[in-house]
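Lab notebook page, bench 4
Experiment: in silico fold of construct C2
Operator: M.H.
Input chain length: 353 residues
Purpose: comparison with the prior construct
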Amino acid sequence: MMGSLTGHDARRIHGSLFMVRRHFLALVIVSAAIATSGQAAPQIVSVEKIWDRGNHNAFTDLIRFHDEWFCTFREADSHVGGDGKLRVLRSIDGSSWESAALLAEEGIDLRDPKLSITADGRLMIVAGGSVYGGTTVLKERQPRVAFSPDARTWTPTQRVLEKGDWLWRVTWHNERAYGVAYRAEPSPGVKPKPEDRLARLVASNDGVNYELVAPLDVDGRANEATVRVLSSGEMVILQRREMKDQHGWIGTATAPFREFRWSDTGHRLGGPNFIELPDGALWAGSREHTNAGPRTVLARMTPTSYEPVLALPSGGDTSYPGLVWHDGLLWMSYYSSHEGKTSIYLAKIRLQP
């Protein structure tokens, strides 16, 4: 169990506060827009380290399921390579956490787990499955999925889509799972063809068998993306881009989600995620590259804009947030190495002071 306040925890919290002061410049940079916008500034209520037992703990997601909290992430020896495993943590109150499951596949680096609830009420993980063969050079990859009725007992991981694909996250809407799939290089050292770099929107009725909905006209080597369908029925995609100006894009479309309009966020993204609140407001979490280095940030978002307004205590290897709105607060999981080791953190944020 983790989360009860011990002397060691107190020292860690003190260290986190020290890092916040040290990175004050970064906080000023990302908060400057608030002063000119006239909108209320989000406030950090608390930040707790909830897991650091793996050598490298990274790439989080967060969900409430059956009135419990679940946080998932990858545990491995390093950021790239090795056989990463998917840890699932459970908590009743969001303060004390324990391991509920550990998913592994021999010879496979399971990466970037993302949680969703299927149309039939099961918990689903979608993750990348990469092969490094004892090196740090990617040799093969294909997405994996697994399902559970209780987050403790999981089906074996199974492959979906095709070799070379990555399905980064799915969102369920009207009993269908929607996500953006993108391609890797055909093989090490081989330059991808233009069509290999094309991201595409796919959908599934069961989370296993996917069909093409629409190719996405996004250049700059589009990859990580979060898809949401708003209460208005409009689909919004927050899309990372790796090349050209590296700015993330926001895409919008109405049903049947085949024609998208794209807006430039003006910011580089890393691990992009966003959520619609009950009042219709959109809030996003991602990595921001500041003069003081990378930070995990919270951003105001609309279907055409993205504005970072709050930096979380973070730095170095960081980002990949999970977002849940609960009891009037935004709960945000993320990982960071600002305290010397990549660890998993949980922040509670008040959006109105």
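Observations: DSSP finds two helices and 24 strands in the chain. The radius of gyration is 19 Å.
Next step: discuss at group meeting.
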